Amino acid sequence: MKAIVCEQIEQFKWIELEEPAFEPGEAVVRIKRIGICGTDLHAFKGNQPYFTYPRILGHELSGIIERIGDNEAGLREGDRVSVIPYLHCGACIACRNGKTNCCTQMRVLGVHTDGGMRERMSVPVTHLISANDLTLDQAAVIEPLSIGAHAVRRSELKPGETALVIGAGPIGLGVMAMAKQRGARVIAMDMNEERLAFCQRWAKVDHTVHALRDPKARLEGLNAGDLPTVVFDATGNAGSMAGAFDYAAHGGKLVYVGLVKGDIAFSDPDFHKRELTLLASRNATKEDFLHVLDVVKSGAIDVGGYISHRAPFDEMIARFDSWLRPETNVIKAMVEL
Ligand SMILES: NC(=O)c1ccc[n+]([C@@H]2O[C@H](COP(=O)([O-])OP(=O)(O)OC[C@H]3O[C@@H](n4cnc5c(N)ncnc54)[C@H](O)[C@@H]3O)[C@@H](O)[C@H]2O)c1
Ligand SMILES: [Zn+2]
Ligand SMILES: [Zn+2]
What we know:
Number of helices: 12
Bound molecules: nicotinamide-adenine-dinucleotide, zinc ion
CATH architecture of the largest domain: Alpha-Beta Complex
CATH superfamily of the largest domain: Medium-chain alcohol dehydrogenases, catalytic domain
Distance between the termini: 12 Å
């Protein structure tokens, strides 16, 4: 079968792979959709930390089960599935505490181990969720939206509470959509006008704030003089992450969804006087996937609008370069098999 491997920085190559083994506890899945995200773009460009080559990319996956044994989940051959790409060990302290999303031995498909840019792959049955009621596109975007769902769940955001989401990329958009689902008032902040307009159209955020135009005063103006009680940063920008402390209300929470390679410094007096809660949010759990699946099934999220670009598998290599260019306004590119 055919696969695309990222052989080294900025180099994809077609290869011929052996058919996946059919091991106990695993299912063979025919891959039908591969969502492309920042992680893939960074891996291709060579600025993804701890990345080794060659690697088959692709972790936002949906497909159809081709072979499966008896299983407790009741999954069967022919079922449409979404893949949870976070392979956890099941034994470490995080796994034992149900926090499989931050397993000490985490292996993410398409990052630490080969992913889904191939016709078929074997996946642990525990990492498949039935998506027969969803389209293949919907099933493939559960993963990026689950990142947002996990961050929102961690924040314990309440209905009516005002949340600020900084960064209107595909990850921030997922946070916004899931925060709206939770009944919060959501304010989006970015420096990109087009993305801010998209937040209003797609995620139905209540307000948008330009990050360079006196944002603090504008936030207070939009919220009866108060700052938001929950701030999410999904920029992947260290300056924004450090500055985000200034936008959280006294007694509020700051959730880092985006991440950077370096250190982030903050003023302890500012942190303390606000008695802020600082939270990291990493990946997502099965619970988050199942929640997003329900929300998508209800029709509350416009998956068609989220997918901005598409390409058949055969054309992926040729199109990939264009998805790296900001002027193409990519939100989510989807590869079809
Ligand atoms: N928590 C997780 O498990 C997880 C999973 C996937 C990605 N991520 C991270 O989430 C972050 C966002 O990913 P993405 O794909 O949406 O990225 P993206 O680059 O597409 O979007 C980031 C957005 O932030 C905006 N931005 C950048 N600097 C800003 C600033 N100073 N002020 C305001 N806005 C600013 C940009 O204009 C852009 O719209 C990245 O750091 C990524 O690594 C985290
Ligand atoms: Zn991704
Ligand atoms: Zn573990």
